Structure formats: structure tokens, C-alpha cells
Amino acid sequence: MKPIQVGLLGIGTVGRGTFEVLTRNQEEIQRRAGRTIQISMVADLDVERARAIVGNQAQVVADARQVIANPDIDIVIELIGGYGIARQLVIEAIAAGKHVVTANKALLAVHGTEIFAAARAKGVMVAFEAAVAGGIPIIKALREGLTANRIQWLAGIINGTTNFILSEMRDKGLPFDDVLQQAQALGYAEADPTFDIEGIDAAHKATIMSAIAFGIPVQFDKAHVEGISKLQAADIRYAEQLGYRIKLLGIAKRVATGIELRVHPCLVPAKRLIANVEGAMNAVMVQADAVGTTLYYGKGAGSEPTASAVIADLVDITRLHTADPLNRVPHLAFQPDSLSNWPVLPMDQVVTSYYLRLRVADQAGVLADVTGMLARSGISIEAVLQRAADAGENQTDLIILTHDCVEDHMNQAMAQMQALPSVLAPIIRLRKEDLS
Predict the structure, then answer these.
(1) What pLDDT score was predicted for residue 372?
(2) From the centroid of its chain, how far is CA 178?
(3) CATH number, domain with residue 100
(4) How far is CA 191 from CA 12, 73, 130, 306, in A?
(5) What pLDDT does 187 receive?
(6) Residues with catalytic annotation?
(7) Where in 10-163 does DSSP place strands (E)?
(8) Beta strand spans in 332-426 (E)
């Protein structure tokens, strides 16, 4: 049978890993796919570097549109990244009747609705396992493995850079800026780490997972996004004393009034498996009605882990290459005409519990004032930790854990507490997720 011909757009870290793993495991992959899968054309602006990688095994060009225009190419792999030229090339590849494999979570989170509609109209597939959590097959689990279930929520450590930073801050007691420099030196963080440390990368991935889990359109613009750049080592220490660890989580949850879609630092009970995911590793928990809780763990980035997901998509497309498009697994798991219009809730309507740290004057009546304001806002307290003031100091930290409440109520209570003369610094607020 004629080999499936693949065109690769971008042969950076993941592109190189894809080429090398596909070459190394060619026999095993062919046995699974039923046909040979061959990268026969590569487009990269650095032609000489690309030729050094592929040798004489593939044609190398500088112009990606030459790959798209080649009638012999069956599948185009897009590994360029970003929203700009990558979007144009993916749309052009679909228009040319090519199947597409992409690891571009930003592209799909922002333009996925347009791209999936174009692919459906043309009868081609867009596969994107590598776009979320690297080598962890979470997209396949959500789209296929959990098909029988009504998914209730998912929560994931889906950015390895931030997880590495938080692990180092906890283990070594170092401030954020010092650990960020260490992460950059080790290659975990980019020179401009904004997408990672401000939660944007995790929000792209959470947006994609929420669409598949609940059958809603991708809606990145409605996600609530907070990063870890303002997180302080003191709060990591206090969380540890209270039996929690702080993780940056991407959360998607189905509630009676709509869908929660949010990324922010969370206190997670230390006894939860996901709280013990350390370093640059990723993990996703999924709660569903029939199967209960499942956990998916592994490397969320890197050359060969991500290449593993890219090649899995190549194999899937190869198997279904000649199948009736109506009989393929839908891009977002649910049939396109069955997507829900459930609203993504604004953050002030979300119900969760909280960790508050107040820097207060060490004087009588402060705790009563603070707890009274919380009570009047309908917020009940789970635990209080008040550190004794150091010798010679007249201020201290007051730590409060609350039970569940509506975020809007918490916002109002915080504004009232902040106005107290005895509260001496901006209140630190982190959300708490039990994940039970």
C-alpha cells in the first residue's frame, strides 16, 4: 500500500523529535498503522539546519506553502506555533484537502471554532493530541476513553515551567524571581516567560479540554487567568503548615448555572496525588459519573514526549484516512450540531473556598473585626492560624481558611477588611480546591 506522505512545517525541538522518533520506530509504527508513514517534505526558514537533521530522507524547502501545494502530501504537521502565520497555513492546508496535525494550543484555543468548521466542511481531520500536556494522551482519554461518562470536572497541572518553579520554591524556600532565573538557565522557561508564569499557556490548554469535556465551543476569551508571578514564599510555607501545597491548576467544572473555566494558583490538600506532582511534570485529574476519578500523569513537554503525541495523531489519521468523514470521532468529541451553549461563568459567580493572609497590627480585637466581617458576608471559617509577633514587632500574619462561598461575596468582604486601620498591607487571597 502506498505510504502516507507527510509534510512537516517547522523542525525545531518538537519537529526534530517527531522526525527522529518516526524514523527510529518506523517498523513498530507501520505495524500499528497498517501503512508506512513517511515525512517526505520539511519546511523551515533555516534550510541548512533542517537538511542537517533529515539528510536525504526528505525534501527541505524554506516556504511552507510549497509543502501545502504539493499534491502528494496527505498530512501537514504544523509545529510553527503562535496565532499568526500558523493560522493562515493551517487554513490553507485544510482548503487544499490536507489533514492537519498540530501541537499549537494557542491557535486552537483562540481560533479552534473556525479551524474545526473549515475542516468539517472539507472532510479532513485536525488532530491535536500534542497541544495539551505533551506526551500524556489526555485528549484521546477525554474524546474517546470517557465517552460513556458525564464529566463533572477536570483539574490539571498543565504547565511544567510553573510547576517546576513552585516545587523549587517549596523545597528550597527561595523567592519567585530566583527560581525563575534558575528555570531559565535550565531551559524550562523561555527568555520571555510571560505565557507560562502568567497562566496563559495553561489557560489555552484548559480551554481545549473544557470544550471536549463538556461539548462547548472553545472560548479562551472567557477564561479567568491568573499566574504565579506574585506568589510569595511565605504563602507556600503557610500552606504547608496547614496541610496543603500550592499548584497552578487549570480547572474546568460543570455546575448548575454553567461552566467554570479558570486558571490560578490553588491550595490542594497534600494527600492528593496531584499535589505530589513535582518538577516539570504534568498531571490531569478527571471526575466523571461512571468511572469516578482518573489521573493522567507524565511529561508535559520536551522533544520526544511531545513527538509521541504528534505521531499518535499521524497513526490515527492514517487509520481513518479513507473513512467516511461522518464516521470519524468529532474534533471536540460531541457531534458539531450538538455543541452546547452553556455559558462560561464570570469569576465573581464561581463558588470555591479561600486562603487569606492578612498583615495586621498585633493588638486586641483584630481577629474579631475580621471574622465579624466575613460572617456578615455569609462566609464561614474553616481554620485560623495566627503567628505570634516576633520580639520587638507590633504586627503579624493572620491566616484564614474559609468554607465555600461565592467569589463576589469574598470580594466584598475583602474590600471591607482592607479598609480596617489594623490591616497593614494588601490582603493575599488564594483559592482552595479539595479535588475530592
Answers:
(1) 94
(2) 24
(3) 3.40.50.720
(4) 17, 35, 23, 21
(5) 86
(6) 205
(7) 37-43, 59-61, 75-78, 99-102, 126-127, 151-157
(8) 351-361, 381-386, 395-402, 405-406
pLDDT digits (tens, 9 = 90+) for 170-217: 999 999 999 999 999 988 888 899 999 999 999 999 999 999 999 999
Q: What is the pLDDT of residue 98?
A: 98
DSSP secondary structure code for residue 344 in this structure = B
Kindly state the average pLDDT of the residues 120-142. Answer: 96
pLDDT for residue 391 is more than 80: no
Q: Give the three-class secondary structure for 73.
A: coil
Per the listing, cell 523545597 goes with 171
DSSP state at residue 143: I
Residue whose cell numbers read 510571560 = 194
> Of 264, 149, 255, which Cα lies nearest the Cα of 199?
264
Q: 435 and 268 in contact (C-beta within 8 Å)?
A: yes
SS3 383: strand
Q: How far apart are CA 407 and CA 257, in angstroms?
A: 15
For residue 84, is it within any domain? yes
- The reported pTM is 0.96
Domain encompassing residue 358? 351-432
Residues 313 and 236 in one domain: no
Residue 119 lies in a domain: yes
- Tens digit of pLDDT for each residue in 280-305? 999 999 999 999 999 999 999 889 99
Which H helix or E strand runs over 361?
strand 351-361
